[in-house]
Structures are given as C-alpha cells and as structure tokens.
Amino acid sequence: MQAIVFDRVGLPTEVLELREVKKPAPAAGEVLVQLLNAPINQGDFLFIRNLYPEPKRPAFPAQIAGNYGTGIVMEKGPGANLAEGTLVAINYYSTWAEYAAIPEEWLIPLPSGFPPEKAAQMMPMITAWDVVEASGAKAGNWIAVTAANSANALMIMQLAIRKGIRVIALVRKQPRLNLISFGAEVVIDLSLDGANIPSRIREITAGKGISAIVDAVGGPLLADLIRNTSFGARIIMYGGLSDQRFELHNNDIYLNGLTIMPYIYRHFFTPPAKEENTTLRKIIEVASDPSFIAPVSGRYTLDQYQAAVKASFSSTPGSSSGKGLFIIGSPEGQRQ
C-alpha cells in the first residue's frame, strides 16, 4: 500500500516521502481501517518534528505520518467488536496511508450516512464544542474568537450562534470566507484596526466588555482583549500562534475575577471514554446538520503530498479558512 512516511525528525517539507509499505494486519483489539480521507493539521507537523510529549512520539524507521482521519472498518483483529463496514473517525497515528491498523478504543463510530469530510474533522469539532462549553457564555453575551479564519474557529462560531452567543471574530487579514455566515456578528481585521481594539470592544459591547475569549494566538492582542473583559470572564487558550509574549498586571486578573484556562484536545493522551458517548452523539447530531459546515481549503491525493504539506505548513496558521484533506479512498460521495 502507499503511505507518507518519514525516517527522521525534521521539517515536514524536508523529511516526508511517499513509499510502498506493507499493508498492516490488525492485532488483538485492533481493526483494519481503509482510509477515505485524512486532514492536514498543524499538530501533524508537530508530530513530525517530535515536539509532542510522550507517548506521542514517532517510531523509526518508516513512521507513517498523520494523526486523524476517517475510514471504513475492513477487518477485525482478535477481541475487536466493531462491525466490518462501520464508518469511523480516527484519533491515533499513521493515517496518511491507504490502510491503518488502529486499536478500536481510539475510533469513534459514525452513522453510515455521515459525510466523510466532516468525519475527518471530528477533532476540531470536539475542540469547538469543548471550548464553547468551557467559556461559560450565555445567550446575549459577547465572546471574542481569535484566528477566526481557522477551521477550529469557524466551528466555534457556528456552535456559539446556536446558543445565541454573540461573536467578535478577529483576523489578521480579510478571510476567504464570509465569517458573518459562520456566526460572527462583528469581524475585526487587525491589519486595519489592530491599534483600536480597546475602543472597538467598548463600542461593540456598549461598554459591558466581553464575557469570554477563545484564543489561539496569545501575544499583545490577548492582553488587549483581557483588559476589555467583563467581570468574571473566562479566557480559554487552545493555541499560541504568536511568537510574542503578553504582559498583564495581577490587578488585570484578580480584580476582574478572571479565569484563565488552557484547553488540550480531550483525546490527545487518552481514547474516548464510555461516559463521553452522550456528548459525542450530540456533537455528531449537530455536525450532521447540512447547515453546519466543516470547510476544506484544499483536496489532495497522497502523491500530491509535497504540494499539500507546503500549502498547509508554509501558510500562516489560522489563515487557511478550512482544513487541507488527503483524499485517499474513492472521492465519490465524500463532498459535503
């Protein structure tokens, strides 16, 4: 089978190769999945550069790249229970390949009619759900969402508007997509209005401030936003795209009753637990709605990996207005 592999740690534009490798066989508790598609995430590049903590480390030689995807169960190993033909979302390793043997505990079964391109983006869908819930924002509250062009942010905004939460979307350049249609009530282009954040926030919120910040950037922008929150606001950090630090005084936090919390994808270290099934079903139900969009910025076959990786790795993170996807199985019926 074909797979995108690497034999050493390094930049993804330098170390990845497309090779013929042996098709895996499922071991005990595993299933063989035929991949339909797999997203190209910034997290995949961190894995290739060996920047993740244990146990998420590459194993050489010929580590297959890719940490997420969707496919069809083709064969069960001893003790596995998922039925052959089941559509699954994958949260594991080795997804930039035609087949992968995956421990079934790391798979999320999906309805047979669930769009595969959405299935490949279950990770940002779950992230979006979690951070909106963690924000504590209620209907009518204002929240600020940074890096609003990103796939995560586009989903965050769609979930927020379903709760009646009002969204200020912050971008560093005019987006390819219309963010208003994704749930943003106000879009601030930082290349034009970056110096006026405090006055813009006061104007938009009628002086009440923002109730939550969902931030993937950091840097001085985050400090400006924090200084314009309402009392008791929550700041959810789920990324750090800026290479600059931000500076605050203790008074900015404790006198305003702020809560600052990090978010790490809930299935980063551990597989989905049974008690999460109810929440996962809710996420799948919302995502099944045709009005919920998981944007795709580009579609590539495995042999187009160099162009695919260059497009995602070389661009400014958070500016792509969707995920790049490897289309691995038959593309028929995969479009949303």
Give an overview of the whole structure.
- The chain is of the alpha/beta class.
- It has two domains: 2-121 and 294-327, Quinone Oxidoreductase, Chain A, domain 1, CATH 3.90.180.10; 124-262, Rossmann fold (3-Layer(aba) Sandwich), CATH 3.40.50.720.
- The chain is 26% helix and 27% strand.
- It has helices at residues 12-15, 42-48, 116-119, 122-135, 151-162, 190-193, 197-204, 219-226, 250-254, 277-288, 305-313; strands at residues 2-6, 17-20, 30-40, 63-64, 68-76, 87-91, 99-103, 107-110, 142-145, 166-171, 184-189, 210-215, 229-237, 259-262, 296-300, 323-327.
- Strands 3, 5, 6, 7, 8, 15 and 16 form a seven-stranded mixed β-sheet that branches. It has a six-stranded parallel β-sheet with strand order 11-10-9-12-13-14, with helices on both faces. A three-stranded antiparallel β-sheet has the order 2-1-4, with no helix packed on it.
- Helix 4 crosses helix 5 (151-162).
- The mean pLDDT is 92.
Q: What is the string of helix and strand elements?
A: EHEEHEEEEEHHEHEEHHEHEHEHEHE
Largest sheet: 7 strands, mixed
Helix-strand category = alpha/beta
Going by CATH, the architecture of the largest domain would be Alpha-Beta Complex
Rg, nearest Å: 20 Å
Strand percentage lies at 25-35%
CATH superfamily of the largest domain: Medium-chain alcohol dehydrogenases, catalytic domain
Poorly predicted tracts of residues: none
Number of strands: 16
Helix content: 25-40%
The CATH top-level class label of the largest domain: Alpha Beta
Distance between the termini: 27 Å
CATH fold-level label of the largest domain: Quinone Oxidoreductase, Chain A, domain 1
Rough outline: globular
Question: Helix segment count?
Answer: 11
Overall mean pLDDT:
92
Count of individual domains: 2
